[in-house]
């Protein structure tokens, strides 16, 4: 992680999955389902579920910044939005680390407090 500021970022927003995914993340809903926007192309979106929430996720092409500068298409970033219907969490990684099974397991372990329902 020498060139990364963070492994996984979690941001909490008021709102349902569809609203937050479209306004705060890389997702767009079409008639035939969700897509995710990467740097130069669209990517497949997969459902994601956990205890008391539903969500979506996608691994998209993204740029990364290192000590050698910015590399526009050099990385893959994981994006996800998890929601209990009233609050949502936007999750993203930076393109260097954080798209492995261990990171996904951490993301899926997220719990919404009863007050947030």
List keywords for this structure.
three-stranded antiparallel β-sheet, five-stranded antiparallel β-sheet, 2 helices, 117 residues, mainly beta
Outline the structure in words:
This protein is mainly beta. The chain has one domain (14-112). 14% of the residues lie in helices and 50% in strands. It has 2 helices and 8 strands; from the N terminus they run βαβββββββα. Strands 1-8-7-6-5 form a 5-stranded antiparallel sheet, with helices on one face. It is globular and about 45 Å long. The relative contact order is 0.25.
Cα(first) to Cα(last) distance is: 35 Å
The helical percent reads 10-25%
Report the average pLDDT across residues. 86
What form results from the Cα inertia axes?
globular
Count of all domains: 1
In short:
By secondary structure, the chain is mainly beta. It has helices at residues 17-24, 101-108; strands at 9-14, 27-30, 33-37, 42-44, 46-50, 53-66, 69-83, 87-92.
Task: Spell out the blueprint of helices and strands.
Blueprint: E1 9-14, H1 17-24, E2 27-30, E3 33-37, E4 42-44, E5 46-50, E6 53-66, E7 69-83, E8 87-92, H2 101-108
Antiparallel strand pairs: 1-8, 2-3, 3-4, 5-6, 6-7, 7-8
């Amino acid at each position: 992680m020498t060139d990364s500021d963070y492994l996984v970022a979690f941001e909490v927003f008021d709102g349902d999955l569809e609203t937050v995914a479209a306004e705060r993340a890389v997702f767009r809903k079409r008639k035939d389902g969700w897509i995710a926007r990467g740097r130069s192309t669209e990517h497949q979106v997969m459902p994601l579920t956990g205890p008391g929430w539903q969500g979506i996720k996608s691994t998209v092409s993204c740029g990364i910044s290192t000590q050698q500068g910015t590399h526009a298409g050099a990385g893959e970033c994981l994006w996800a939005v998890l929601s209990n219907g009233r609050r949502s969490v936007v999750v993203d990684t930076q393109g260097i680390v954080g798209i492995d099974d261990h990171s996904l397991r951490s993301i899926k372990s997220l719990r919404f407090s009863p007050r947030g329902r």
